[in-house]
Amino acid sequence: MQTTWKGTISFGLVSIPVHLYSATQEHDVPLHQVHAKDGGRVRMKRYCEQEEKEVPYAEIAKGYESPDGRTVTLSDEDLADLPLPSKKVIDVLAFVDAGEIDPLMFSKAYYVGVADKAAAKPYALLRDALVESGQIAVTKIALRTRESPAVLRVHDGTLVLQTCIWPDEVRPAAGIAPEEDVAVRPQELKMARSLMDTLSEDFDLSQLHDDYQQALQQVITARLEGVELPHEEESGGAPDNVIDLMEALRSSLKQARGGRAPAAAAPEPEEQPAPRKRAATKRTTAAGAAGRAAPAKKTTTRKSPTPRKAS
Q1: By three-state DSSP, how is residue 118 classified?
Q2: How far apart are alpha carbons 128 and 158 in whole angstroms?
């Protein structure tokens, strides 16, 4: 695995020389730009407006244009020599519960490996302390041209550094969710929970695969072989307007169970009225049951004295 970053984890007065390795990789089908008319490759050229000619990549630097129109040129050496403590040090700032960091802030993950044998014991110490406490370490790190907050956590016995975005880079969610007061009935919530439990049975995340890349590869193969392109089979699709939420939940539950209808008790919540009326319904049902049972007792009472008079 190629090393992405070299530096030190600073844990109080403990220093751990480490290397970072990218923990993820994408498996996209490589595509490039071509001229739609004839398939000719379209390439991007680095063109200097000042000299009106193409320039090689080795002569490319970064620049900043100030509000008054002046341009500042920054070389790779300028960026490498920034007076930034987090450039070579992952400084542990605090330890917090994992739930305190919103997953919305998480970005790219890196495996953390030791740089030498001497780092093995302090590495194991920090790893085991995180496991025992159930916490994650909050840090900062400078990678390439960006400093980011990050967390250190444990995955499969290995320290993982997960970069984050800054808190003020998270956009507010105001106005996106329904603003009106939507009432969800207890029976609807119960049916939704039943559907959640059914969908979660025997779920294995590792069995998921990229259908888009597979379909794209099929189209590319068909083009190469000059055969008809594959097409998606038509399906009924989801309704664009759910009129009866309980019926939609019940049908979803049946489909999730492989066509098996929900248990007999499942449809019952829909037939029950609102919570305040439910008690009245139960009382009515109980009274009806008592009314039906009463004649049986009277019949038994009338028949019982007759034999005694006969004797």
Answers
A1: helix
A2: 10
Half-sphere CA count of 148, side-chain side, radius 13 A: 18
Q: What is the pLDDT of residue 94?
A: 95
Q: How far is residue 123's CA from residue 15's CA, in Å, rounded to a whole number?
A: 9
Check the CA dihedral 25-171-98-190 and report its sign.
Answer: negative
* Residue 269, pLDDT score: 46
- Rounded distance between C-alpha atoms, residue 218 and residue 53, angstroms: 41
Summarised one tens digit per residue, pLDDT across range 262-302 is 554 444 444 444 444 444 444 433 334 333 444 444 444 44
At a CB cut-off of 8 Å and minimum separation 6, what does 170 contact? 102, 104, 105
Alpha helix stretches (DSSP H) within 114-244: 120-133, 186-200, 211-225
| Angstrom distance (rounded) from CA 44 to CA 99 | 45
Q: Are 93 and 138 in contact (CB under 8 A)?
A: yes
Q: Alpha-carbon distance 221 to 227, whole Å?
A: 9
Looking at the chain, the number of H-run helices and the number of E-run strands are: 8, 12
Q: Indicate the pairing of strand 3-11 with strand 89-91.
A: parallel
Distances (CA, A) of 59 to 75, 125, 151: 10, 46, 36
- How confident is the model over 87-137, as pLDDT tens digits? 789 999 999 998 899 999 999 999 999 999 999 999 999 999 999 999 999
Q: Are the C-beta atoms of residues 101 and 151 closer than 8 Å to each other?
A: yes
CB-based burial label for 12 (10 Å; 0-12, 13-18, 19+): exposed
Determine contact, residues 137/92, Cβ cutoff 8 Å. yes
Q: Which residues pair with 138 in a beta bridge?
A: 94, 151
Q: Is 23 exposed, middle or buried (0-12, 13-18, 19+ CB in 10 A)?
A: middle
The model scores a pTM over 0.90: no
